[in-house]
Amino acid sequence: MFADKALEGLQESFGGLADMDLDLDLNTGTVTLFTTTIVLTAALAYRHLSRGKDGGNAPPHIPSTIPFLGQAVSFGTSPIEFLLAAYEKYGPVFSFTMVGKTFTYLVGSDASTLLFNSKNENLNAEDVYSRLVTPVFGKGVAYDVPNPIFMEQKKMLKTGLSISHFRTHVPIIEDETRTYFQRWGSQGKNNIFEALSELIILTASHALHGMKRDKAHIEVKNIFRKAIQKRRADPNPDDDMLQTLIESTYKSGRKLTDDEITGMLIGLLLAGQHTSSTTSAWLAFFLARDNDLQDKVFKEQQEVCGDCVAPVDYDQLKDMQLLDRCLKETLRLRPPIMTMMRMCRTPQTVLGYSIPPGHQVCVSPTTNQRLPEVWKDFDQFLPDRFIDPEVANSEKFAYVPFGAGRHRCIGESFAYIQIKTIFSVLIRKYKFSLVDDYFPEVNYNTMIHTPTNPVIQYTARSSSA
Ligand code: HEM
What we know:
Layout: H1 2-23, H2 28-49, H3 72-77, H4 79-90, E1 93-98, E2 101-106, H5 108-116, E3 123-124, H6 126-137, H7 147-159, H8 163-181, E4 187-191, H9 192-200, H10 202-210, H11 213-232, H12 241-247, H13 258-289, H14 291-305, H15 314-319, H16 321-333, E5 340-344, E6 348-350, E7 353-355, E8 360-363, H17 365-368, H18 412-429, E9 430-434, E10 442-443, E11 450-451, E12 455-460
Parallel strand pairs: 2-8
Antiparallel strand pairs: 1-2, 3-5, 4-12, 5-8, 6-7, 9-12, 10-11
Bound molecules: protoporphyrin IX containing FE (HEM).
């Protein structure tokens, strides 16, 4: 199969050359012989070069006629369509070049197993993420430290994300939502993505978006450092994430430094901000597009919480099953992290292919969550598909909006609580609709796939809302 694919690719690449030769008025026999010789020689060379050191086959490489840039334009224009088409043509493991780097995608549950079960020293996260993340989170945390240390830091953060903490989070989020949306009045059109981004991380997002990144980082660090010092001196401290981190120790017995605590708090805020605000904005548009579904979600709110101004608590969130399914389905069709990446440091084997060191190995939740053989009516927003709990688990890595394995997200429960609380307030307050039937296009220019022109129409459900 591999040789066919290589030949096919080379034929595509050399198609232009054959056309050129025909224009040269040579006799057809010479042209055919010439072209065939080049194609076969190149195919053999390609096949030889693409054998791994252990003699295994390299994954099929999607050919490109553009040196260095490779598939950057095709991928950049519509990455999901590109990956699904490549999957159809080349199967679950394939490579391509972009801006001089080779990316190898693992599509579907079986192939994805390699990435999710890998050890960090083989498929490495720091090599690809540190450059982006460390300037924002600071040194000494996340991808700036050896992975076992980051694993310990994740564990400490998880202690602060417990159910008893969630119980206190719900009224805070609810209160913030009510206060924030007072400015929207009883009806109008407004940018829901911007509003949700601000709501989800009001102060920090202002600080980080309004200034240059490095300056913002220093500024935010100073704010946190003062808060940490104040807290350390407090005889009756609150039981929150800051306190959890102040009291945490590494296995070695060492306590976290102020810088580490600050980095972890900034990391938490940022990891949760773009992911949750983008997901919330898409959820709003999926509901705005489908009146019947929105009515059902509203009915569920009335049944669980009562009237539009009644407060919501943590236990009630669990009863909002339809809202839960809508969020799950939003995360299927629009997972905010479209690709998880690792640097291949040691030779890897998957489904008979050998991946050499230097490839960037990727799994895309967006792609896995749209495979037609796993997801019936894969491109439809059908929250009730999750009534059967087996749907998301039919194949181990078919549904991975929060990743899996050692790098798995620790914020899933918090994100569900935050987004469900916000929507419990919003759906009881407003009826949403699309503006002129416009459902946002996906903006592929941002790392997280945000909605383009995310303006939504809203009308208050009652004057007391
Ligand atoms: C809708 C919301 C969210 C989604 C879809 C999401 C998605 C993800 C994904 C896909 C990963 C795995 C990345 C990889 O394997 O390369 C991840 C990791 C992580 N997330 Fe989230 N996340 C969300 C919210 C949050 C929140 C609210 C927090 C913090 C409270 C958070 C903290 C983290 C952390 C600490 C990691 C670990 C990274 C690692 O170990 O390398 N996330 N998240």
